[in-house]
Amino acid sequence: MTSLLSLVRRYQLTAFFSLTIGLTWLAFIPFYLSNGDSIPWFTFGPMVSGLIVAAVSGGWSSVKAILGAMVTWRVRPIWYVVAFGLPFATQLTSILINPLFGAAAPVWSNVPALSEMLPIIALYAIFSGPLGEEPGWRGFATPRLLASQSALAGSLILGVIWAIWHFPLGLVGDLSLYSTINVVLAGVVFTWLYQNTGSVLLAIIMHVTHQNSVRFLGKVFTGGDYVQQQWIAVAIWAIVAVAIVAYYGTESFVRRPRTQLAVAGAL
């Protein structure tokens, strides 16, 4: 037992990723094999795993850091605009562009009324990923990855693992190539948001907005038009990710003041 705890402390990220995938997949696959359609997806796997590994490796102080980031709300207002607005704007822009590539006009009447969406969005925020995932991906994994990796490398590593974590959903037709690529690209954008705010709460908000803008605004198209629109959205996310790297560089995704740059150059 002591040797196992020592390994967890030494290889925190490996322990976290292994436990996250293990908890989620082991809750999913047996139900899939027995039922085949109505299956649970344990979205709290990343959060539970992050808190467990944090407790084992760093005690209460490490757990407290994750919990504190989950309620960190005092950030510059512009980051709330980013968290709420960027995913929505990406989805809306892809909808408006889609007819230029031969899609039918969007049917806006297919989007449910706001009063119908809000209760569903609240439930999805808790049980469909944002609350269960972000404390693990951003609160636990991101700071530890960036301790030894550049922001770009860490984002891509986490994005690929985040995508792999979703793989069993392909068994029930709830996974596509465009959504997989989007998750990897989102890894870059979410790291940028977290690096500039230190807030898991903002990451949860962005996750909610991204997930539900696709879920509800995407209803304006069906069939091939919907698939094409989602590919356009992926292209826009790619442009955003490239713009982040081009402006901030690859190391931290944080713009350092000119005085700090001058001092660094002098050294």
**Whole-number total of structural domains:** 1
Could you say which overall geometry the principal axes of the C-alpha atoms support?
globular
What Rg do the Cα atoms give?
19 Å
Q: Approximately how much beta-strand content do the residues carry?
A: under 5%
Taking the alpha carbons of the first and last residues, their distance comes to 47 Å
Helix-and-strand structural type: mainly alpha
How much helix is in the residues?
over 70%
What is the β-strand count? 0
Protein name: Type II CAAX endopeptidase family protein
Keywords: Membrane, Transmembrane, Transmembrane helix
Pfam families: Rce1-like
Task: Give the secondary structure arrangement, pairings included.
Blueprint: H1 2-10, H2 12-35, H3 45-70, H4 77-97, H5 114-127, H6 130-146, H7 151-165, H8 177-197, H9 200-217, H10 223-248, H11 258-266
Describe what you observe in this structure.
It is built from eleven helices and no strands. The protein has 267 residues and is an all-alpha fold. The chain has one domain (73-266). Helix 3 crosses helix 6 (130-146). The chain crosses the membrane at residues 12-33, 39-57, 78-97, 117-133, 145-165, 230-249. Keywords: Membrane, Transmembrane, Transmembrane helix.
Q: What does this entry show, briefly?
A:
With 267 residues, the protein is an all-alpha fold. It has 11 helices and no strands.
